[in-house]
Amino acid sequence: MERMSDARRRSLERRWRESGAGSDHARFLVERLRAGEVEPEQVLLAAHLGDPGAREALGLGAEAATSGQRAWTTALGAWKGHVPARAALAAARLVLPVFDRGLNPDPRPRRALRAGEACVVCPCEPHGRRAAAAAEQADALASGDAGTAVWAAVQATCAVGDDVLPLLEAAVMSATRVAGVVAVRGAVRDALVPWTLGYEDPLARRLGGVV
After folding, report:
1. Between 56 and which of 26, 41, 168, 182 could a Cys-Cys bridge form, CB atoms 3.0 to 4.6 Å apart?
2. Nearest-5° angle of CA 78, CA 82, CA 87?
3. How many CB atoms are closer than 10 A to CB 125?
């Protein structure tokens, strides 16, 4: 017989999936926290990114944080692992239309970002080498806000320790000057929240399998 806690979890998840409401997501997250299925740090990251359900689950309310973009980015850089690199890549992807204009679109930014994205999805040695090579090639793009966003994001996939924060800030702030605060925060939220909460990896899904 299915345990009562399992039945409750499935019921809460089904309700959230059907309604899409932040309050239903909050109830589901509280249950996941209680069961040890998700760590508080994961929910805290989702809350920082502006997910209404995560904020409500932690008693922060449903409104996104109102801090300035640089302060928001600096706080985001405190998370370890691939969080800063994924955030930088999500922000930088917003500037790609700048390179797609005209009769001869520049393919280099898209290729560079894809190499960085493949590395964070599958951080094996071959992908690491490709990302490092892409980071070197991206040096030629580092002029103007769009080019700087791409360069910094790809460099962030190869950075370690304290070196990643300046690159994250450069990617996010440069992309913000191109696409705006709302678009950048939305892109980063949509890319990271499902991943950090263990639902799915939108980046891996979009890549269609890392080659």
Report:
1. 26
2. 75
3. 7
What does the mean pLDDT of the chain come to? 89
What are 196's two structure tokens? Answer: 């950090």
Residues 6 or more apart whose Cβ sits within 8 Å of residue 81: none
- H helices of 20-140, in order, are 22-34, 40-48, 52-57, 69-76, 83-93, 96-99, 108-121, 125-137
- Cα torsion 107, 105, 82, 75: sign: positive
Write down the pTM of the prediction: 0.91
d(CA 57, CA 24): 10
Cα separation, 145 vs 110, whole angstroms? 15
